[in-house]
Every structure is written in C-alpha cells, then in structure tokens.
Amino acid sequence: MRPRPAAAKSARPTCTEIKSDPNFVQSDSAIATLLDAALSNAARAAIPPGANTATIQFTVHDLEPGRGALIAEGHAIRAGAGVVTAQAHARDASGLLVAQALGTLRVLRPR
What we know:
This protein is α+β, with helices and mostly antiparallel strands. Helices cover 21% and strands 44% of the residues. It has helices at residues 16-20, 28-45, and strands at 7-12, 52-62, 70-79, 83-92, 97-108. The protein is elongated.
C-alpha cells in the first residue's frame, strides 16, 4: 500500500469559565487526549475508508503551559497495511506550540 499524505485537526473546546480566566492552564492529561485524537484522525485519513485505528502507543512532549482553548493538528508520517505512524502538535489561540506527540496506531479493518 502506497502511503498518501494525510492530515487532521482536532480542537478541545473550553467552557466559559476557562475562557474568562487567561491564567487557566490545561492539564497534561487533557492535552494528551487532544493529541491522541489528532493522531487517530490523521491515521484514519491515511487508511482505506471503513477501516479504523487503535492507539498502540504515543509519546507526548510538553513544551509550554497550554492556556485556554487549544487546537491540535496531526499528520500521518507513514501508513502501512497494519500500522500507521503519526505526529501531532497542539497550539494555543496565539499559535504557540504547547505540546507535540508521536504515535503508533494499529489499523483495524472491517470483517
């Protein structure tokens, strides 16, 4: 299977109370969940329609405190028949890179 370029964006909306407090810092687990979603969406964009993915492993590197609403963008690096490798970056509203992730996802084909 020849890899094709794939990308996806995921957003973690914040509630009104969070948006009104500019000093609120997102938790590491919330950022990791956002990055995992971006990895999964990017992987699914790189595999045949109808197939799904399951995360095997991923590593997150926190770079800055994530304040307020965050947006993550993921890209499939390589899509094989059974495994996809993807990366994702999370940025705040100003575009500051707050975290990045690299993950391996299993391709689940329909039976």
